[in-house]
Amino acid sequence: MLSAFISSLRTPDLRRKILFTIGIVVLYRAGASLPSPGVNYHNVNQCITQLSGDTASVYALINLFSGGALLQLAVFAVGIMPYITASIIVQLLGVVIPRFEQLRKEGQAGQAKMTQYTRYLTIALAILQATGVVAMAANGQLLQGCTLPILADDSIFSLIVVVLVMTAGAALVMWMGELVTERGIGNGMSLLIFAGI
pLDDT exceeding 90 applies to what percent of the chain? Predict the structure, then answer.
């Protein structure tokens, strides 16, 4: 297996794709550990370590699927899930809405239009999900049982900034996944899910 990997690195085109994919995964992991502005990172870490018992196992599971980003309110806390949800919704709407069915039959141009609809729906879902996470953090429900303030400032402006940063993070994750699919190795979205877990 090691010899196959070494021989793949000798091919310039394949080496470029492998290095590009590794670079995107490294950037994704960096964004998953970078806290959003206005989040008290020290208090979040203290709250996570304070949790124990069944609650800790639930939080550990949530943290697993977000790559550790959700509970820390990182830039990529919302992650790839809005894109996956939007893709499923658009696929299901293709059966219900005749216009979507027609677009699917139009070939490459129709597929490009469906991809554009998926992107718009992804942003809308990312806004909803980020708003929910930030509202839970502001109300003290994200890490129940912890009395430390997670957000440094719970003014409306500060909360909107955190929501916008998380939404932009979701859009960036979507773009990075599409870049890996186009220029890297394998399906970019699946690879980012794997990198998160």
Answer: 29
